[in-house]
């Protein structure tokens, strides 16, 4: 199970990073194509420093990887981190479906 393989702090970092619309947009863009932080900053109505902070949050959650190329910092997505988030959600969904089945079983026993 992914949930038991990751610590609470790692799970918190992933979902905190994905909780912001700008960060989700950055992830989408850099999964399609590597971009520099300067390129990303031109896309948003916020300061370069604010975009850098968003990228830092994403990098701490391992959702993106930053690489220095001369004076530029290039950012690209990390599909494996997104797969981990998807597996986590899948596990939560399976737990929920199991609970729903248990409730249905209890209700059907009461009807009999």
Account of the protein in words:
With 112 residues, the chain is an alpha+beta fold. 71% of the residues lie in helices and 12% in strands. It is built from six helices and three strands. It has a three-stranded antiparallel β-sheet. Strand 2 and strand 3 (72-77) form a beta hairpin. Helix 2 (8-18) packs antiparallel against helix 5 (48-60) and helix 4 (37-43) crosses helix 5 (48-60). The chain is elongated and about 70 Å long. The mean pLDDT is 92.
H-E string: HHHEHHEEH
Q: What distance separates the N and C termini?
A: 36 Å
The radius of gyration computed from the alpha-carbon positions, rounded to a whole number of angstroms, is 19 Å
Which strand order spans the largest sheet, edge to edge or round the barrel? 1-3-2
Helix content: over 70%
Q: Tell me the major beta sheet.
A: 3 strands, antiparallel
List segments where confidence is low: pLDDT < 50 over at least 5 consecutive residues.
none
């Amino acid at each position: 199970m992914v949930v038991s393989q990751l610590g609470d702090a790692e799970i918190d970092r992933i979902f905190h990073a994905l909780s912001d619309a700008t960060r989700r947009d950055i992830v989408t863009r850099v999964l399609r194509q590597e971009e520099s932080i300067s390129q990303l900053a031109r896309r948003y109505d916020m300061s370069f420093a604010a975009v850098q902070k968003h990228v830092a949050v994403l990098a701490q959650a391992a959702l993106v990887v930053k690489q220095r190329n001369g004076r530029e910092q290039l950012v690209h997505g990390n599909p494996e981190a997104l797969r981990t988030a998807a597996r986590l959600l899948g596990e939560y969904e399976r737990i929920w479906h199991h609970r729903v089945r248990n409730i249905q079983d209890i209700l059907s026993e009461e009807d009999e």
